[in-house]
Amino acid sequence: MSDPLVPNTLASALAVSHVADFYRRYPGETVTLYTRVDVLKPVSEFTLRIGLPTGLTLGDSALTSEGGSAARALSPLSNHGSVPRLLTLDGESFLMWEVRRDLTAGERYEYQLQATIAPVHEDTTLTSRAIVTAPDSTGALSTTAGEDVSIAVAAHGAYLKYLPALYTEQDEFMGRWLMLFESFWKPIDRQIDDIYYYFDPKYAPPDFLPWLASWVDLTLDEQWPEEKRRQLLLAMVMLYRRRGTRRGLQEYLEIYTGCKPQITEHGAHNFRLGKSNRLGPSVALGRQNVPHTFSVGLHLPRAENEQKRQERRRKIEAIIESEKPAHTSYTLNIEEE
Question: Over the stretch 251-265, which tens digit does the pLDDT of each residue have?
Answer without folding.
Answer: 999 998 889 999 988
